[in-house]
Input
Amino acid sequence: MHIVISAGDDLPIYRQVMRQITDAIAGGRLTSGDRLPSHRELSEQLVIAPLTVKKAYDELEALGYIESQRGRGTFVCARLPKVSRATRNTQVLDAARALLSQAYLAGCRYADVLKLLADADRDLTDQPAQSRRKESL
Output
């Protein structure tokens, strides 16, 4: 797992760690049962405080994305949190509105946004969108 921390990012460091781990889970780069580095290992790798990593891990665990097993380590949960279809659709619609609003204010056209979404999809999943099975909303 490769995490990059940016001092200039608006997000606090622990949130950057959380975002990159959830992106890796969403994109399939981390899967059920994969072991995460320990707090100490990741903090040394990123040159940040171990308590910062612990805070990120604690929040991810509370959200149901990872689980700590005493004496064994921290792993991606076997069962990720389930969200109802209505809740999921509402969350995605809200995010889409925010994205389009920001894009339109920046002068982007809808076609430009679609291309950027395809690029982001490729970055997130390490594969083109066309190669994945399409699921209905």
Summary: The chain has a mean pLDDT of 89. The longest strand covers residues 66-69. The chain has two domains: 13-76, 85-128.
